[in-house]
């Protein structure tokens, strides 16, 4: 296994800020409060509630934010600040918990809800920088100008500061105070074209088992029955772990070739490659670095559990959307041009 990156990243998300800013970006300034969207949840469109549909359209892709942070190094700290009793925030809780994000509960004293996290988040960042001296990167997911002093102080303490904000709701001064600032819409994976088709899992040949006498008797009785033969079970979904789960929760493709969501092994690979290409501006990426990044995004990934002996074999099986260069001493991989955003 490749050695982990020396960079250690701390991620701090002003969740109210990013949710409100994204909604207002899609539906117009002030729309979040005008539509009273905070009391609704992110769910499939409801014909009786147009605001729910608007909320769905403005859904924030938390995975894209955390995947970008993991491209900088190992995420050692990740926190999201919000009032988690608010329905719109609560609808994201399972997604955040699945990515090991600490949910910090706030009780805003103002109705606007947008600036409740500023002081608490800033205090936690400075405390963490002194408490955890090996942190190298600080990622601030917000756009408020209130975080300018925090970004400047973090830089003064020797950390590389990265900001992530929504266009139209980000202070230009905050962007200037960071070492690097990313527009949310520019993050790899936020585009709708991030779906890919999952190639079929490798077929593992197994020797036929010897039937016992009891089994033969049972089968003979079943053969004489006039009932129709039951349909063969569908192929189990490819997983990143050993625990079985329904195909929908694993995000894999069906046998009919339906595109899979980003959470499957192929989606994980595509996200890692897109981030690697964007970060390094290189055509080819080292396979070790790519696998390392995939493990930072999803520690449960294991090519052997998927039926492949090596990571290179896993890459070869995804030849429909990746190319593998094995001509040199170091194997390299790249995303095919058709799958670039």
TrEMBL record:
InterPro entries: LOTUS-like, NYN, OST-HTH/LOTUS_dom
Chain spans, region Disordered: 192-265
Any GO MF annotation of the entry: RNA nuclease activity
Biased composition (Low complexity): 227-238
Pfam families referenced in this protein's UniProt entry, alphabetically: NYN (PF01936), OST-HTH (PF12872)
Signal peptide: none
Domain named HTH OST-type: residues: 261-339
PANTHER family: HTH OST-TYPE DOMAIN-CONTAINING PROTEIN, SLR1870 PROTEIN
Name recorded for this polypeptide: OST-HTH/LOTUS domain-containing protein
Organism of origin: Sanguibacter antarcticus
Lineage, uppermost ranks: Bacteria, Bacillati, Actinomycetota, Actinomycetes, Micrococcales
């Amino acid at each position: 296994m490749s050695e982990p990156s020396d960079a250690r990243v701390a991620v701090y998300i002003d969740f109210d800020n990013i949710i409100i800013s994204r909604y207002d970006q899609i539906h117009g300034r002030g729309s979040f409060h005008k539509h009273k969207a905070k009391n609704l949840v992110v769910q499939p469109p409801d014909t009786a509630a147009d605001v729910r549909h608007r909320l769905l359209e403005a859904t924030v892709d938390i995975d894209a934010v955390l995947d970008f942070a993991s491209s900088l190094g190992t995420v050692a700290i990740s926190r999201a600040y919000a009032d988690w009793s608010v329905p719109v925030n609560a609808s994201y809780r399972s997604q955040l918990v699945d990515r090991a994000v600490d949910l910090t509960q706030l009780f805003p004293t103002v109705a606007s809800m947008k600036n409740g996290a500023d002081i608490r988040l800033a205090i936690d960042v400075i405390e963490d920088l002194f408490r955890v001296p090996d942190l190298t990167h600080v990622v601030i997911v917000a756009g408020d100008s209130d975080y300018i002093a925090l970004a400047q102080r973090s830089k003064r303490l020797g950390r590389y500061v990265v900001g992530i904000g929504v266009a139209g709701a980000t202070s230009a001064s905050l962007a200037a105070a960071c070492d690097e600032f990313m527009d949310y819409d520019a993050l790899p994976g936020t585009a709708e074209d991030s779906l890919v088709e999952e190639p079929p899992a490798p077929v593992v040949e197994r020797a036929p088992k010897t039937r016992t006498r009891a089994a033969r008797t049972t089968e003979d009785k079943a053969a004489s029955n006039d009932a129709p033969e039951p349909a063969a079970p569908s192929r189990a979904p490819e997983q990143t772990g050993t625990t079985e789960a329904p195909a929908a929760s694993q995000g894999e493709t069906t046998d009919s070739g339906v595109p899979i969501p980003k959470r499957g092994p192929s989606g994980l690979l595509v996200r890692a490659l897109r981030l690697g290409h964007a970060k390094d501006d290189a055509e080819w990426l080292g396979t070790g670095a790519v696998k390392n990044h995939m493990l930072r995004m999803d520690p449960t990934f294991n090519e052997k559990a998927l039926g492949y002996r090596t990571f290179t074999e896993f890459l070869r099986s995804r030849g429909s959307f990746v190319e593998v260069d094995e001509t040199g001493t170091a194997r390299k991989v790249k995303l095919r041009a058709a799958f670039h955003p």
